[in-house]
Amino acid sequence: MTDGFRRQRYLIDFSLAAMGRRKVRNLGLLAVYSLLVFVLASVMLFTHGLRQEAKRVLAESPEVILQRLVAGRQDLIPPGYLERIGRIRGVQKIQARLWGYYYDPVVKANYTFMVPEARPLAAGEIVIGPAMARERGLVAGNLISFRSYSGRLFTFKVAEVLPQASELMSADLVLLGAGDFRAFFDFPAGHYTDITLTVANPLEVRNVAAKLAAALPDARPILREEVQRTYAALFDWREGMVLTVLSGALLAFAIFAWDKASGLSAEERREIGILKAIGWESGDVLRMKFWEGGLISLAAFLLGYLAAWVHVFHLDGALFRPVLQGWAVLYPHFRLTPEVDGLQLATLFFFTVFPYTAAVLVPIWRAAITDPDAVMRA
Amino acid sequence: MIEIVDLHKAFNQGRPNEYWAIQGISLALERGQVTAFMGPSGSGKTTLLALIGCLARPTRGRIRLNGEDISGLPERFLTALRRRHFGFVFQQFNLIKGLSARDNVMLPAYPLAPPYRQLRARADALLAQFALTHRADAQVEWLSGGEQQRVAIARALINDPPILVADEPTANLDTALSREFLAILGELSRAGRTVLLSSHDPLVLESPLINRRVALRDGRVVAD
Amino acid sequence: MSLRCVLASLLRRQRLGVRRLRQGLASQGLASRRLASQRLASQRPSTLALAGLALGLAGLCATGIEAGVQERQPDPPSPALVRELGLTDLALFTEARYTRHLALADGHAPFQDHPMSFDHFPSASLVAPPRHD
To answer: Closest approach of chain A CAs to the CA of B50, in angstroms?
Structure first.
């Protein structure tokens, strides 16, 4: 153990013993401080996790989706439309999709009905998403009836429930065969919902979109990168929103901390005088105070951050669910993939540990450089 | 050991409330002696002790400690000197409230950072010497006045300084405790420590332990 | 007959021994726990604080390790499903048709039912959801 370390340990001893005198106050401060870091870190980790999840999952979605617009609204793809696209260089696959929404008055939720091209489903059989299965209490083999928009009752057999791990994407899905889909929705024959295009080379995507727009003036191509950007922006905005709401709390804490840290009482001033008189240097006093601020803020940072980590990645962000949930009836149960963002961590560290430590040190400066004989004159 | 030559100290120099607390004192203080500075309040006793104890710097004049001129040294060096050579007992004891007696005793050694076991053993030995072992873990504000003063003396001795400076040590003590203090003073003096104290308490000043009495008035020596 | 007797007495003795051992261990455990708590209380505050900080930093490292381990895990089923179905949106906002697939709805989608209606869904704000009854 070197001299320097031993000296710092003595200073830590003193600052802890000094803080121990106002145990309730300092523990209260630590608790509030940790709570604040916890909320901030939770928001950051949660939105970052969602953003990463969206990025990771949506990397697999089709490069281009083509919608047809009528009077500015999405409309069905009529027969013969696919053929008009013709051959475009770089496009690997063109596929017309069938999907739509269905409002289930029983649970007051919207489902997404979709026809899987690659998964052949027998007539009268459906595959359902896990949130929907939970909400309606369904397992594989159960029967379920939906009243279609035309008023007729359709009964389906649940062939399979999609895996829970994919719930963030598939919570409300109902997969069914093309024949069932058309019958259920009275979907006109030969029509489709939209078209997906697979483009192998990412540099070609913009060209393909331009060609599509030229060939089909009534179509709107949606690129995957736009989708990803939408989601990134969405979570940024959401994070910003929460942080804005939090900023009030943040300011309140800043005022409280400043008041607590910078208001040097006469008693503390006298103590600093005593320490100087019995042989402490100004530097020792400053270092001791540095430890006081540093220990509290570092402890709060670690406590808050670790609690946030557990909250977001192991308790599924239970506190944020109401914020994100909105009116969603079929809210997915999902677990985010833990991820550490160095920059984010550094930002959080800088904005929580640094200001408090500084607030503790600033007022001490003047007191620390007063003459030690003030004690004798008092 | 300590030589003082034409010492002056002014407070608020250059301002309308300028005040010269010490106005030309010259003294030579010898090792191993108990010297008492006496005089009415405002006579400059405390200021003189603060100057000798490196707590403040003189406005004019010289103080030599073991032949070394210390009057113009910067704060860092003064602090180091103070730690090595002087132990202080203040009128108000000036213990840090809320800390245990042992912690208070150990405080002056923190910047020197001796190994913890060693320091603690030394503190416990000092507490035992002043019959405070049973109060070592008690917070200082729970101690009686006499106990507090003994803690203050133990604190002054933790760095084993050759010189003990005591400013009005008996001002807050009753007669019995003052006698107790004088007994401790005798022990320290016999152990070879130099003691400088200020007092206007006849009980102290008339004690046979005092080797030398210096009377001050208005920042000047009036009798020696 | 005699063999059975011997066996029974052996068993009894063993059981007794175990019980005694257990009692001994229990009292020892209590004593050592008391000793440990005493030792904890007599520690220097800096020891406790530094140990706490070290623990926290270890936790911080653990989060990094956990993230690293998760990253190396095989692909969960979501990307496969997305690839298969060509999905475009997270199922977070299922309250209305036009919020379910945000990527596919256009900028005016929330107003599509009525040109002058405001977007009143809480997925666009932080209002708590009302009851559905």
So the answer is: 6
